[in-house]
Amino acid sequence: MDRQNPQTKSDRSNPARIETPWNETLKTIGLSVVFAFGFRTFIAQAFYIPSGSMLPTLQIDDKLIVDKLSYRFSDPARGDIVVFQPTAQLEKEKDADGNQKFKDVFIKRVIGLPGDRIEVKGGKVYINSKVITEKYLDEAPQYNWSSTELTADGIVPKGQYLVLGDNRNNSYDSHYWGFVPKDKIVGKATVRFWPMNHLGGINPQQDYQ
Known about the structure:
With about 210 residues, the protein is α+β, with helices and mostly antiparallel strands. It has one domain: Umud Fragment, subunit A. It contains four helices and twelve strands; from the N terminus they run ααβββαββββββαβββ. The strands form two sheets. Strands 1, 2, 3, 4, 9, 10, 11 and 12 form an eight-stranded antiparallel sheet that branches. Strands 7-6-5-8 form a four-stranded antiparallel sheet, with no helix packed on it. The longest helix has 22 residues.
């Protein structure tokens, strides 16, 4: 009887695959790309601030990390600073050449939740007839407005949100073009990582009572 070395037999039937440095490099790069894409798509992403609509909270050219995961399990809260895609109304707006005017994401603060009625008058914001305190504003709004301009009863619809810029008098926001559906919200701005002297959380809990 021909006795074979088990290791030798195994080697013949399952020859070892020789990994070259080039193959290892390609694998490493591939896995890194897949991980980075998945992280950026589903968990977090970096954004920068292109305008002054969120002054003084956020400065032009600030760079932020946006949490894209939280709203898969919970709803936006009043005071959250959110990044969102242009709404259907914004998508309709055209520039001088007839092209879609707004393609990039917006960043604003959630003020009105589903079921709320909002009114801006006398430099104050009222939610369901009660004034809210907004310590993050440098300048009070110098306009009067009501959510009845958007819906007959003035109630923010289910699954939608009213957002305003912190720079109230220089912000193109909900009081111009309407509500933001939840499915348009990319995520919540949580951390500013640039400039380094402003490094840290940007969305502390706000007491609106």
